[in-house]
Specification:
mainly alpha, about 85% helix, about 180 residues, 7 helices, about 0% strand
Length: about 180
């Protein structure tokens, strides 16, 4: 597997993080620190889950591929519903990137990377360079997503958090339906 293949896989893996990054951008104030923190969470978790999957290798492939989509769906749906039901649409930057929420979102959007890591073990792919590529690409794509969310937030005002919650739920549903071969 060549570098171009790894880059294309990284872009594919980053798409869920991109959608969620847009949702987070809808809920934060425009501050470069917040943008970078959100993108770092997604980039680091994609690389980390890819590496964990690689080392799980043969032992847990069947388990990982059977439940990964359910975990992502449940986590994103819970967070999306929570975001929709949130009474205060003007939450602070610190609350919108709290550790608990960001960990859940990062795990939910990087479950696929875990499964890909298992596949990489079978293909004897260099996991260090692959994880670095995946992490960097996810970071860049997530940064773009947050910036897009901020732009739309300025146009949507108070409806932004509602839209962000809907994006999270739809992303979780998309992950579930893809893995069930419905779409």
């Amino acid at each position: 597997m060549g570098t171009l293949d790894i880059i294309l896989i990284a872009v594919g893996l980053a798409m869920d993080a991109f959608a969620v990054a847009i949702a987070k951008g809808l809920c934060i104030k425009k501050r470069s620190k917040s943008i970078i923190i959100i993108a770092l969470y997604f980039g680091i978790f994609q690389a980390l889950m890819l590496t964990i999957g690689y080392f799980l290798g043969f032992s847990f492939e069947e388990v990982v591929t059977k439940i990964d989509h359910y975990i992502a769906f449940v986590l994103l749906t819970i967070i999306g519903i929570s975001m929709i039901l949130e009474k205060d649409f003007r939450e602070s930057v610190d609350e919108s990137i709290d550790i608990k929420t960001m960990l859940l979102l990062s795990v939910a959007t990087s479950i696929d990377a875990l499964a890909i890591g298992v596949t990489f073990a079978f293909l004897n792919v260099n996991i260090i360079s692959s994880a670095i590529i995946v992490g960097i690409i996810t970071f860049v794509i997530s940064t773009t997503g947050v910036l897009i969310g901020i732009i739309f937030k300025n146009k949507l005002k108070l409806k932004a958090q509602l839209l962000g919650g809907i994006v999270l739920i739809l992303t979780g549903l998309k992950i579930l339906l893809e893995h069930l071969n419905v779409i």
